[in-house]
Amino acid sequence: MTASMSPASSSSSPAVLVAGSVAYDTVLATPGRFSDTLTPEGLDHINLTFPTPVMRRSFGGCAANIAWAMHALGGRPVLWGALGADGGPYLERFKSWGADLSGLIVLEDCFSSQCFITTDADGNQIAAFHAGALDRADEAPMPEADAKLAILAPGERRATLRQAERCVEAGIPYLFDPGQATPLYGPEGLKTLVAGAFGVAFSDYEAELIERFTGLTPRLLAASGKTVWHTHGARGSSVWRPGAEAPEFVPAEMLPEGKSAVDPVGAGDAYRGGLLWGIVEGADPVEAARAGAYAAAVKVTHRGSQDYALSRAQALALIGKTSESSKVR
C-alpha cells in the first residue's frame, strides 16, 4: 500500500524527491575495546559476545535523514522508497511533521531496513545492515509531487538505477549520492548513475572508491559538466562548478555556541539536506554548500539523526537571501 499526507508549513516550497534508505538504527555501546578481544590469530573462528549496557534505537536511513534536514529548514522533501511491515512507527513519525509520502510504499511481507551498530570505548564501530524493504524500493511509485529536483541517496543498485531512469524520463534533475553503497553499484552502475546526474556528492573515502572503479576524479567530473560536492568531514567541503579547473573550498561551520560534537552519525545526510534546500531556494553551488555545512554543524551536537532543529533565517543569511522571492519555480 502507499501512504500519503500533504506537507503542511512547507507546502509553498518546491518539492524535492528524496530516494534511498529509510531505516531503524539500533546503536549499542560496550564499555570495553574491540581490540582487547579481537586478535589477529582468532579472526578465522570468531564466537564473541560484547556486553552492551547502553542501547539506543532511533529513526535513520540516508533518505529519511536528508528529508529531515530539508524539513527543518522549511523545505518540502518527498520520500521515495519502501518500508516493511514494521514501518508503522516511521509512518507516524513522518506524518507528525507533515511529510509527503506519495512515493513511499509499505511492503507487508518483509522488514524495514535495519542497522545494528555496536560502538566500543574508542569509538570504533561494528555494524550489520539488513536491507529488507530497501531491496524492493524499485516497486515504489513515482511520487505525484511536481518536483523540481531529486537526490538519489545510497540504496539498492537495481532500484537506484530505475529511479534514475524515471527522473530522466520525467525531466527531473537529480543529484547522485553514492555513499556507503558505492561498491555495490559497481563500475558500470556508477558510470550510468553519474552520467544522468547534474551533480555528485561524496566523501573522501567515496571519492577514492569512485576513482578506483571508474577512473573518474572530481576534476574529470567537473570537466564533463557535473557539479561536485566533495566533503571532508569536519574540515569542510570542496565545490567543483561545471568546467572548473579547481574547486572552491567551503569551511565547516562553527558549532552552535556552548555546544560540543556528540554524535557524527547523520552529519553527511544533514549536509545534503541543507545543500538541496539551498539549491531550490536559488543558491549557487557554493552558497548551497554553506547551508549544508550549517545543517551538519548543528546535527553533530545532537544524538540521533533526526532530533535537531535548524534556523531558516540563519540558513537564508548564509546563502545571501532574506526573503521567499528566490525559490526555484
UniProtKB/TrEMBL annotation:
Gene3D superfamilies tied to this protein: 3.40.1190.20
GO molecular function: kinase activity
Source organism superkingdom: Bacteria
Carbohydrate kinase PfkB domain boundaries: 55-307
Keywords: Kinase, Transferase
InterPro entries from the UniProt entry: Carboh/pur_kinase_PfkB_CS, PfkB_dom, Ribokinase-like
UniProt cross-references to Pfam families, sorted A to Z: PfkB (PF00294)
Matching PANTHER family: RIBOKINASE, SUGAR KINASE
Protein name: Sugar kinase
